[in-house]
Amino acid sequence: MSLADELVLKGVVVPCVTPCNSDYSVDYGGLKSNVQRAIADGIVIEKGVLLIAGGGGELPFLTPEQRRKCIETAVAAADGKAQVLGAVQDNGTAICIELAKQAQDAGALGIQLGPPCLYDNHTEGDIIRFYEDVAATVDIGILAYNTWWTSLNMTSDLLVTLSGIDNVVGAKWSSPAIHDYLRGYRKCAGTLMMIDNQGMHAQAHIMGAQGFVSNTGDFWPQYDLELWAMLERGEYRDVPAYMERLSWPFYEFRGRSSQRTGGEAAPKKAAAELVGRAGGPPIPPTQPCTAEEREELRQLFLSAGVPGVV
């Protein structure tokens, strides 16, 4: 049996922050603590997955060695209780192969693999060859990631083709075209573990999604786990009101923050610190949340009932 067969992509996918010290070096102790707290809060096998060193974990600013050590740290901290995905995305096949091998050697059972992201003029043939070449070098599962905002958009037909590649076992799925987003589930939900990355959790679950990407799992995993439980119980009518409590307001806060400084790390790290988890400064050129933004976020958390706000 391949290691890819052991990967379970189900429930809440948490893109973990990469904690940093004041000099922007990685705080591996803080990452270990965050992973252990996430597991204690219920992000365990069959209920969730921990994504390490992804976009929300400042992937573009981490060296290959830092990415490897982050994955290694998270796998050790998880201690078999939760599965860890290592994020693999860069500008070419060779470095992505290196990163994929490092993730496997570090103990991850899978990788989130996004297409090369420097240029947006790759062809579908380029993307197919890219996934085939990376998959041929590792034995762990691959979650195909449609990063249509930085690279060629994967159509549902391209996703069908990728699903035939060994080790491609899932898709972190979104699309700028709603009809093709839904078609992706129609065509692939029976063969791939589909993870919603469009924020359409109820519709995606109805169409066969096995999980969703969380915006709030870094600081309140139980909130997302209850949302997943609602979906599994088929309580779709209750989902909008539940998401209005925190998911959507926090997403809107992130959007406002991004008008001042780029990247996902500033609001995610501020949120983690507000509940006593490791965050630290975002890596430049991203700037930390301002005092006013932190207070706005604190008030949002208090109104939503986020536990442990400091």
Describe the structure.
- The chain has 310 residues and is of the alpha/beta class.
- The chain is 43% helix and 12% strand.
- The protein has one domain (3-236): TIM Barrel.
- The protein has helices at residues 28-40, 64-78, 93-105, 124-135, 156-162, 178-188, 201-206, 221-232, 239-245, 247-258, 265-274, 291-304; strands spanning 11-15, 48-52, 83-88, 110-113, 141-145, 168-173, 193-196, 211-213.
- An 8-stranded parallel barrel has the order 1-2-3-4-5-6-7-8, surrounded by 4 helices.
- α2 (64-78) links the parallel β2 (48-52) and β3 (83-88).
- The chain is globular and about 50 Å long.
Query: Structural class of the helices, strands and pairings?
Result: alpha/beta
Number-wise, the strands total 8
The Rg value, from CA coordinates, equals 18 Å
The number of helices is 12
The CATH topology comes to TIM Barrel
Strand content: 5-15%
Helix and strand topology:
Layout: E1 11-15, H1 28-40, E2 48-52, H2 64-78, E3 83-88, H3 93-105, E4 110-113, H4 124-135, E5 141-145, H5 156-162, E6 168-173, H6 178-188, E7 193-196, H7 201-206, E8 211-213, H8 221-232, H9 239-245, H10 247-258, H11 265-274, H12 291-304
Parallel strand pairs: 1-2, 1-8, 2-3, 3-4, 4-5, 5-6, 6-7, 7-8
Helix pairs in contact: 1-2, 2-3, 3-4, 5-6
